[in-house]
Design goal:
Blueprint (H helix, E strand, L loop, with lengths): L7 E8 L9 H15 L3 E9 L11 H12 L4 E4 L2 H4 L3 H13 L3 E4 L4 E2 L6 H36 L14 H13 L4 H10 L12 H8 L8
Parallel strand pairs: 1-2, 1-3, 3-4
Antiparallel strand pairs: 4-5
Helix pairs in contact: 6-7, 7-8
C-alpha cells in the first residue's frame, strides 16, 4: 500500500488595525488553524501574518500576502489555510479575485472554521454560500462605517467638534516623513529597510518611537490614521 502524502500547507493570518496586533486576533487564529492541521494530518510549512492591513486591500498592497504568493510560486505548497474567509478579504470582489489567483496558482484555500474549500467552484451551492457570506461581511463593515460617520456628525452638530485620531501626514513634520518613505520605496528598498533607514536618520514615528515595517506599509497603503 502506498503511504498517503501529507499535504503541505501555509497559513495566512490578518488583523485589520494596529490596535489588534497585540490583542487576541493572532492567537485565536493560530489556535483554530492548529486544530484543523492536527485533525487533517497536514504539514504546516510556514505562517504569513498581515499586521494592521484592511481586508479590502488587494494582494499587491499586502506585504505578507505578496510573500505568500512568492512562496507558492517556488513550489511545494498544496493549500493555504485561513481561520475564516473574511481573514483573506472582507470585500467580496477582492475575495473572489484572490481566490481566482490562488486557483490559477494551483493551490486551494481552506477555511479552518468549518473546513470549507473556498476555491471549489464545482459545487454551485458552496460557491453561492461563499459569495453570500462575503457580501454579508462587506455589508456589516459598511454598516459599521456608516454608524461611526453618523455618530461623528451628531457629535459635531452638538458640540461643534468631533475629535478623533488626526490623520497621519497632517501634523507638523509628518508630510516630510511621508515623502521620505515614498522616496526610499521608489529606490527599491524593502519595508524593513525603509524602517531601518528612517530610524537611522533619527526620524521618529508619531509616538516618538521606532519605525516598524508594518507602519511603513500603512503609510505606503495610504492608511493615514496610524498613530505608532
Amino acid at each position: 500500500m502506498t503511504p498517503t502524502t501529507r499535504p503541505n500547507i501555509v497559513s495566512y493570518l490578518r488583523v485589520s488595525s494596529r490596535g489588534q496586533v497585540d490583542g487576541d486576533g493572532f492567537p485565536r487564529q493560530r489556535d483554530r488553524i492548529a486544530k484543523w492541521v492536527a485533525a487533517n494530518d497536514a504539514e504546516h510549512i510556514a505562517e504569513f501574518c498581515e499586521e494592521g492591513i484592511s481586508g479590502t486591500t488587494e494582494s499587491l498592497a499586502r506585504p505578507a500576502l505578496s510573500r505568500l504568493i512568492e512562496r507558492i510560486m517556488e513550489g511545494g505548497i498544496d493549500m493555504i489555510i485561513v481561520e475564516k474567509a473574511d481573514r483573506l478579504a472582507r470585500d467580496l470582489i477582492v475575495s473572489e479575485l484572490l481566490l481566482r489567483q490562488f486557483t490559477e496558482l494551483g493551490v486551494c484555500v481552506i477555511e479552518a472554521e468549518g473546513g470549507n474549500d473556498l476555491t471549489t467552484d464545482d459545487n454551485p451551492t458552496a460557491k453561492m454560500i461563499r459569495q453570500i457570506l462575503g457580501a454579508v461581511a462587506e455589508f456589516e463593515k459598511s454598516s459599521i462605517v456608516r454608524k461611526l460617520q453618523a455618530a461623528r456628525k451628531r457629535k459635531r452638530n452638538e458640540t461643534g467638534r468631533c475629535e478623533g485620531v488626526k490623520p497621519y501626514g497632517t501634523l507638523a513634520g509628518e508630510p516630510e516623513m511621508v515623502a521620505a518613505i515614498r522616496n526610499l520605496r521608489s529606490e527599491g528598498l524593502t519595508l524593513r529597510q525603509i524602517a531601518d533607514e528612517m530610524n537611522a536618520r533619527g526620524m521618529k514615528a508619531r509616538s516618538g518611537g521606532q519605525w516598524r515595517h508594518s507602519v511603513v506599509a500603512s503609510v505606503l497603503n495610504n492608511d493615514l490614521t496610524i498613530t505608532k
